[in-house]
Write a structure and sequence with these properties.
Blueprint lengths: L7 H5 L5 E4 L2 H4 L2 H30 L2 H6 L1 H34 L1 E6 H5 L2 H29 L1 H8 L3 H28 L3 E2 L5 H5 L1 H32 L7 H33 L5 H16 L1 H8 L1 H24 L12 H9 L1
Antiparallel strand pairs: 1-2, 2-3
Helix pairs in contact: 3-5, 3-13, 5-7, 7-8, 7-9, 7-11, 7-12, 11-12, 12-13, 12-14, 14-15
Length: 350
């Protein structure tokens, strides 16, 4: 059954949102899709909380704000992507649940799909994350191969604070402009679930896949080269050990992105141009991408000593404040008497 089949008269008259009656053969398997999206939405919600915490840690400590510009940029992308995953999941759960209940599906156009908030957020995250990862690999390689240039022209300079983030955001903006141009210039009836390919076409979907694969793999190559170069230099230059420690978590982020993002995108490309992959392989692959957006906090916690110390200190401060407040109040909410005042009160009332 063709779900996007409708009259040209209805389409041209502006009736872009219509429901079409379907039978059980179409809704078969929707229960499994609901379960899949419940899992993915839950992972996205956890990732959103983790990235919000990470943003608070980065922005709440001035040395981190100046030192970890690219990590903050990556964190912004992860946070946006995590929120998009939650909104996407809620949208799909409602869509499939309604279809099962009413035996109808909406007929959508590419423009209607393109202006969905969750799809716009997903588009931003899909581009900003790999671009940020790419710049991280470039930065580490430049820092090791050209240390003098990096020290005097990059580190602490406008190139790092403004130029690189600016170029990244400009690339995201231009990509989104192209996507909307494609959606509006070729407005047509499309799939009811409104994915990227449905809204912007297969060509733009391929661009997103290739962008993720290329940026993540390139970052891994750059970070690996920088790591072994720094490791070799550290044998004769002890101060280079600090660079080795920094590159270690940059490299791990690049490797995880390659495994958890580039691999699923490769599978998606294979499905698009070669042959459909079974759900038992493709669905967990999308979960891997969601996990990747929430895992960076734990990478920093494990491999960045300064970040770990700052995080523990922050939690200790919050815990100390809670303990201080609890000591100042009695169980019924009244202020606890100062030390020694209880004895004085007893003496006066005795």
């Amino acid at each position: 059954m063709n779900l996007i089949n409708t009259s040209d008269q209805a389409f041209n008259s502006g009736m872009f949102t219509r429901n079409e009656t379907v039978n059980t053969s179409v809704t078969h398997g929707f229960e499994d899709l609901i379960t899949y999206h419940i899992v993915n939405t839950s992972l996205g919600a956890i990732s959103t909380l983790v990235n919000t915490l990470l943003m608070i840690i980065f922005l709440g400590y001035r040395p981190f704000r100046t030192r970890y510009v690219l990590l903050i940029l990556l964190n912004v992308g992860d946070l946006i992507n995590s929120m998009a995953i939650v909104l996407t999941g809620l949208n799909r759960i409602e869509l499939y649940s309604t279809a099962i209940r009413t035996m109808t599906l909406p007929v959508r156009t590419s423009v209607e799909c393109a202006i969905e908030p969750w799809l716009i957020l997903k588009l931003i995250g899909d581009i900003l994350i790999p671009v940020s990862t790419f710049w991280m690999g470039v930065e580490r390689l430049v820092a090791i191969l050209f240390p003098i240039f990096y020290r005097f022209s990059v580190d602490g300079k406008a190139v790092k604070y403004l130029v690189v983030p600016g170029l990244s955001l400009l690339f995201v903006f231009c990509s989104i402009c192209v996507a909307f141009y494609l959606a509006f210039s070729e407005n047509h009836l499309t799939s009811f679930y409104c994915g990227r390919k449905a809204a912007f076409g297969e060509g733009f979907g391929t661009f997103i896949y290739c962008c993720n694969i290329t940026c993540n793999v390139a970052s891994t190559i750059f970070a690996t080269a920088a790591y072994f170069k720094a490791l070799n230099l550290s044998k004769t230059q002890p101060r280079m050990q600090r660079q080795v420690n920094v590159i270690r978590y940059y490299l791990l982020i690049s490797v995880l992105s390659t495994l958890l993002v580039s691999l699923p995108n490769t599978i998606a490309l294979f499905q698009l141009y070669v042959e459909k992959v079974s759900d038992s392989l493709s669905k967990p692959a999308y979960w891997m991408q969601t996990i990747n957006s929430g895992i960076h906090f734990f990478v920093y916690l494990a491999l960045n000593k300064e970040f770990r110390a700052r995080t523990f200190r922050m939690f200790k401060m919050v815990h100390s404040e809670e303990m201080s407040l609890s000591k100042k109040q009695s169980p019924d909410g009244c202020e606890t008497p100062l030390r020694g005042s209880a004895k004085a009160l007893t003496a006066r009332t005795g």
